[in-house]
Amino acid sequence: MATLGELFVEGVRRLAQAENRNARLDAQVLLEHATGMERSVCYAYPEREVTAEQEQHFLALLERRLQGEPVAYLVGHKEFYGLDFLIDKRVLIPRPETELLVEAALEVIRRKLSAGQVPIIADVGTGSGIIPVTLAVEEPRLPYLYASDISADALEVARLNCQRHRVAQRIRLLHGDLLASLPERVDVLTANLPYIGNNEIDMLTADVFDYEPHLALFSGPHGLDLLHRLLIAAQQLAILKEKAVVLLEIGYQQRAALEQFLHEVWPQATVTFTKDYAGWDRLLLLQT
Q1: Which residues contact 208 (CB under 8 A, 6 or more apart)?
Q2: What is the pTM of this model?
Q3: pLDDT tens digit string along 250-269?
Q4: How many CA atoms lie within 13 A of 191 on its CB side?
């Protein structure tokens, strides 16, 4: 019988040999998942024996990780903003950068609530639902939010996450392209749409390109197609209320192009940008 410590050491060794920069963390997460034991137990009792089934499960997960499959898909969940979300190959894996969008949205929402307004919120291209679910959990004063996606598969994952965090009664899931399914005008529009250009494919790591849904990654030659369509539609459909705010996650190299685009098509809007943890422009805030 193998022990927890032996499996952990073997996992770290094999992942490190494959030049995995997160060898220790990946091995730990896979070991926890395969054995059903919490991290504190794995650390405190490395001599504890595992069953043959647990060992085989761990080794199978380890082999899949060595082939490049992301840990989040292997274990079926991912933490975001302190919450645990169900994740599978139907949706993009949450990134820490998107927490910046959530923080900015909460600031806007709470400012409106403090002014006596109950804002109407919509998240477009919601994927696994991390943005609206987190907003609903963090701000219980919101009676409801909209979350739309063109992918029915993604909406099913979002539905599961709404149920997981007990906000299913407050999040109205809509199937449709961008703003097409929204039934009313909104005060706050959030979106983490695909923004990788086809010209950037060579820059992606294999675990992203080979496993994550391309529908959630790519948006035309320069990654701007969907962002342009959303911004044009928001203006033409008059979907935004007076003094509404649009919050968009963007690609690291897209600020200049978006500034020029908005200057031409939406000159009256006020646009600001926020940098991510790496110092890249990552969040676009548009005030009508």
Answers
A1: 70, 217
A2: 0.92
A3: 998 899 999 999 988 888 88
A4: 28
